Amino acid sequence: MSHLGYCRLMPFDHEQVLRSAAALLTRKSTATMDEVARAAGIGRATLHRHFAGRDALVGALESLGIQEFEAALDAAGLDEGSAEDGLRRLITAVQPSAGLLSFLVTENQLFEGDDVDEGWSRLDARVAAFFRRGQERGEFRIDLTPAWLTEALYGLIGSCAWSVQAGRVAAQDFPHMIVELLLGGARRSVEK
Amino acid sequence: MSHLGYCRLMPFDHEQVLRSAAALLTRKSTATMDEVARAAGIGRATLHRHFAGRDALVGALESLGIQEFEAALDAAGLDEGSAEDGLRRLITAVQPSAGLLSFLVTENQLFEGDDVDEGWSRLDARVAAFFRRGQERGEFRIDLTPAWLTEALYGLIGSCAWSVQAGRVAAQDFPHMIVELLLGGARRSVEK
DNA sequence: CCCAGATGAGACAAGAACGTCTCGTCGAGA
DNA sequence: TCTCGACGAGACGTTCTTGTCTCATCTGGG
Questions:
Q1: Residues lining strand C, beta carbon within 7 angstroms
Q2: Which of A26, A106, A119, B57 fits a disulfide with A66 by CB distance 3.0 to 4.6 angstroms?
Q3: Residue A140: helix, strand or coil by DSSP?
């Protein structure tokens, strides 16, 4: 081949491996490199050929999660229309990545990353800014800080992803459950 | 000494060790037995004398968490007064255990316990039943299932505990942030 | 048909953590 | 004062994981 280092069919799907790794690590954060490899249907040696060690693997997962979350933020068009609709679009867009994100969120709670932190803080800022704009526009209450709403969003995404995986919530209800709880709360429309 | 196996001053505070272990494992779930011992201010040998291995340690944490959560459920008096007040009392009562509980919740997502599962499913049932009663009394909306509200509660407790620890939320606001978000949601009182 | 590149399987050593053990020390009670 | 019990420190062997290596196999391209 002349250009593009690799152009074979697909003996190794870089992203597919990361997908299955995320799916496994979400459930078992202490999974072995061998388990990750088996879950991806490849050999442990091959896994090491593409990711130099466990750190590199979680680093790649980190990058993938950041990229996907950022793409979801872009695709949601948070500034178009009402904040409520924007949030709804965001959650719908983020649903495919929910498992990966919940893994990364719990992982980062300790992992004092270096440049990774930079990526997350930027995304955190975008989400917090969205909630702040919603407050300024009078759509969101002001007694709940943007930072807390951001963390709560992450927590609910993780909880709902887990509930879906456990069969306690239907996958199609994912956006509804999160948006309705996060925006409307559990209290029944207190008359009016 | 005549009765009560041990009645020394307190060269070893069983519960205090579990406390510090929970605090450490909440932040670093892969912490070493040695790290756990050091964090508790005891030697690794002593730790092994009281907890036969890591499994026994997390088992004890599991029991402690179940016990504390159950005590919080009892103390909250969920059936007295409005469901909203009951939830408020529950969250206030559970705040001291929030760190431990969030650790156990994420831990149990894989740990297919044996008798441990029994304890958690019983507590889950109590919480879900509380939300169901709230629905039947017309206080909670019915489009959010009790199972989801239960999981969401756990998620918000974990998120808020983490936010407090990270300094993004004041500890005194813990109950308010959770209750207001869980019950009222972020949407501003949609006029009336 | 032959060759290059990538894979899977397995062997190998290094390191980490675990669980157990012994030993010296210290404090409380007899 | 003496003794018993528990602790801290540390050594030791075992197990598990990791990272690297080699080798046989397979596939696609020349």
A1: A 6, 8, 11-12, 41-46, 49-50; B 1, 8-9, 32-34, 44-45, 48, 52-55
A2: A119
A3: strand
Q: Which pair of structure tokens corresponds to residue A166?
A: 């456990």
Overall fold of domain B1-51: Arc Repressor Mutant, subunit A (1.10.10)
- Please, what is the end-to-end C-alpha distance for chain B in angstroms? 70
Residue B140 DSSP SS3 = strand
What contacts A74, CB < 8 A, 6 or more positions away? none
CATH superfamily membership of B63-184: Tetracycline Repressor, domain 2 (1.10.357.10)
Distance CA A8 to C1' C9 in A: 23
Is A163 an 8 Å CB contact of chain B? yes
Residue A1 confidence class, pLDDT cut points 50, 70, 90:
very low
Contacts of B90 (CB under 8 A, 6+ apart): B72, B73, B76, B78, B130
Tokens of B92: 């206030």
Structure tokens at A99: 């498992």
Q: What is the reported pLDDT for A112? A: 61
Q: Average of pLDDT values for A133-140?
A: 96
CA B182 to chain centre: 17
Q: What is the mean pLDDT of chain B?
A: 89
What's the whole-number mean pLDDT along residues A130-153? 97
Query: Cβ of B140 under 8 Å from any chain A Cβ?
Result: yes
What SS3 class is residue A72?
helix
The predicted structure's pLDDT at residue B45: 95
Q: What is the pLDDT of residues A103-127, one digit of tens each?
A: 999 887 666 666 778 899 999 999 9
A65-184 fold: Tetracycline Repressor; domain 2 (1.10.357)
pLDDT given at position B173 = 97
Banded pLDDT at A9 (limits 50, 70, 90): very low
- How many beta carbons lie within 10 A of that of residue A86, not counting itself? 20
Q: Chain centroid to CA A183: how far?
A: 19
Whether residue A169 has pLDDT greater than 90: yes
Q: Could you state, in order of their start, the residue ranges of all structural domains in chain B?
A: 1-51, 63-184
Q: What are phi and psi of A186, to 5 degrees?
A: -85, -15
